[in-house]
Amino acid sequence: MAGKAALTNCCRIFHVNTRNISPIVTQVRWSQYNPHYLEPTIDKTELKKPLEEQDPRRFQPIKAIRSEQTVALGYDFQREKFINIMMKQGNKRLSREIFEKCLENIKRIQLQKYHKSEENERSSIELNPMNIFHQAIENCRPLLKLTRINKGGVAYQVPVPMTEKNSTFRAMKWMIESAKAKDANTRMYDQLAHELINAANNTGKSIKKKQELHKQCESNKAYAHFRW
Amino acid sequence: MAAPMQKLSSTLFSPFVRYIRIHEGDARCKISLKNAIRHLASDSSSEGGKETSPISSRKAEKISKAMKAYLERAQKHDEFMKSQVAEFEIGKRHLANIMGADPDHFTQDEIDTAIEYLLPSGLSKQSRPSLKHPEEVFPTKKAAQFDVTGRPYHPFFYTGRPNFYQILHEAALKNDNLVAEETRLRLNKQYTLPTEKLQIGGSRWLTLADLEKVTIEKLTPLDHKRFVSVLERLASHPLSLAEKEFIQQYRQELKQQSMLLEPPKLLQDTDGRHYQEGEGTRKHARAFVRVWEKGTGKVKINDQDLLYFSELSCREQVMFPLTFTEMLGLVDIEVEVGGPGTQAQAGAIRTALSKALVSFVDQPMAEKMRLAGLLSRDVRRKERKKPGQEGARAKFTWKKR
After folding, report:
1. Environment class of residue B125 by beta-carbon count within 10 Å: exposed (0-12), middle (13-18) or buried (19+)?
2. Are B43 and B120 within 8 A, CB to CB?
């Protein structure tokens, strides 16, 4: 009787194991840190909260804060991402310089607008360049993309919804591409500033690219069911 | 006495009877029948009370091959260990004599220091010469897992790792019991979410090496993952407090990290001004920072001011610990930094400065610095280039021919 129970339980263990084997995948990009290390807490409001009695951060070592996170005015993920996408040949210094000059230009353009406009219109003009940057990305983000799916020997362009991460990348890429499509005499940071302001106002090349993609998705919507 | 004896003899006889029935007319079985009868007869007459002896003793004479092999192995291992211990004792006494110490009371710590003194080595810790008791050096071996007939004791013997699977088995069983208990309570409408839950935040699961020591079995990382996932499920059950003792067996207590960090006391220079020193590294850069109290915010890096770094991000990184602790303009800083890379140098200064600043701030702020990752060393390095590849990850351009 006991033997039978042991046998059934034995099978159950193996059942448990088989269920657990499948999601375990060896990672390609491993970390230099021991897995016991935790990510640092950067957010200042998060740091002000008292730690709970059983919080793992009390007992486990913390990874070192990364160099791009040690920014006086606060760390902005999208800003760092944009700089990294714009970077060529690992020249981050140049990429960062372009971005900072671009923000400076935006500020200058917006201030000129502000002073030219009449009193009652002034409150509607955004003067913070970082807000314009975020608004531009938000406006450029596409909802759908086209993926190539083979069905019965024919390749179909099938519209598929995009994740937030993917669409943000696409928006940044478009903005950088349209800023690079310029004549040789204009500088990148000037062109990028105009592009960002236009995108924040829902106009410009990158917005057009988004609309074109949406139009293509619309025309191919008959294939949408090929996704499954 | 008579009734049980009769019953026993019939039970003992039954296998032989069956044997005869099957192989009637076979010469061998006749002999075996004769032997069996003789055994039983002699047994009932001479030994009387010890009913079970005839067959078990007969089996004991016939030791299985597995047992024989095990006994040989065990004997060999014992002899080996004996010789190793003798050698260790001689070596220890010899070392004590070299060092001019008392050979009878020469401790392991003294052995370690003696070897470090006599055979200085720059190799990694595992590769350095050492002298340890053989029991520490050679892994412990399991005692026999089967009886003289070769029949294993453990039901999971044929899994190859019975102790490991026993743990999984018990954990799964306990989890099932908890689930059954929960459903029973729910059906009776007595179930309320328990107010007291099992708290395991201050400990962690046994590591692979620890688990191997507990089970005395060779395990793989995948086995360890299974072990963690099965036990994690048991621990996460709302009623798991009932199985606290079992779960705690496989948890390792952790120290509070904030207790590990005790700020060093402030130093004083000849003018009576307090200061603190800190050292930091990042990649191959190394920085040495001295922070003075009652300052005006002066910064001196390799006899230059903050413009030593032409890049803004480097300057921001250097000043970050000061802005974080709100000490900007309250202390003076002097830095000596060397090594390749401006960003690496800035990173090294950041760590060194943070370590020095801990002495100037209160405990909650020091804890905040730890949580923000200012006090840990950035261990990331450039990943090496691989042979047959363009770089660390990049592959050569693929050419058909």
Report:
1. exposed
2. no
In a mutagenesis test of the B interface, which of A51, A58, A71, A100 is the best target, namely the one with the most B β-carbons within 10 Å? A58
Identify whether the C-beta of residue A146 lies closer than 8 Å to the C-beta of residue A220. yes
Which H helix or E strand runs over B19? helix B2-22
Q: Which long-range contacts (CB under 8 A, 24 or more apart) does A160-166 make?
A: A160/A227
User: Which positions 306-335 of B are in contact with A (Cβ < 8 Å)?
Assistant: 311-313, 316-317, 319-320, 323
Q: Quick check: pTM over 0.90? A: no
Cβ–Cβ under 8 Å, residues B380 and B371: no
Q: Say what the pLDDT of residue B13 is.
A: 38
Name chain A contacts of B255, Cβ cutoff 8 Å: 59
**CB of B225 less than 8 A from some CB of A:** yes
Query: B105: distance to nearest CA of chain A, Å?
Result: 39
Of B204, B229, B258, the CB nearest to A58: B258
pLDDT tens column, B237-271: 999 999 999 999 999 988 888 777 778 889 998 88
Residue B212 tokens, joined: 């191997």
Which of A17, A32, A47 lies nearest to residue B226, judging by beta carbons?
A: A17
**Interface residue B207 vs chain A (CB under 8 A):** no
Chain A nearest-CA distance from B208, in A, is: 13
For chain B, the domains span 2-61, 66-137, 157-253, 267-371
Strands (E), A126-216: 144-151, 154-161
> Between chain A and chain B, how many beta carbons pairs sit less than 8 Å apart?
114
By Cβ distance, the residue of A9, A61, A93 closest to B257 is A61
Give residue for tokens 């020095």: B356
The string of pLDDT tens digits covering residues B183-206 is 999 999 888 888 888 888 888 999
Angle between helices B162-187 and B208-215 (to 10 degrees): 100
Token digits of residue B276: 């603190």
Q: What is the dihedral of CA A103, A108, A109, A115, to 10 degrees?
A: 140
The residue-averaged pLDDT of B291-296 equals 92
Instruction: Please tell me the distance in Å from B251's CA to the nearest CA on chain A.
Output: 14
- In terms of C-beta density within 10 A (0-12 exposed, 13-18 middle, 19 or more buried), how is residue A10 classed? middle
Q: What gap in Å lies between CA A53 and CA A198, rounded to an integer?
A: 50
In chain B, which residues have their Cβ closer than 8 Å to the Cβ of A53? 199, 201
Cβ within 8 Å, pair A40-B371: yes
Q: Kindly list the distances between the CA atom of residue A113 and the CA atoms of A116, A190, A198, in Å, as whole numbers in the listed order.
A: 5, 16, 14
Q: Which of A158, A162, A156 is nearest to A210 (CA)?
A: A162
How high is the ipTM of this complex?
A: 0.78
Q: What is the predicted pLDDT for the residue at B307?
A: 95
Q: Rounded CA gap, B97 and B114, in Å? A: 11
Of 3.30.230.10, 1.20.1250.20, 3.40.50.620, 3.10.180.10, which CATH number belongs to B267-371?
Answer: 3.30.230.10
Cβ atoms of residues B149 and B59 within 8 Å: yes
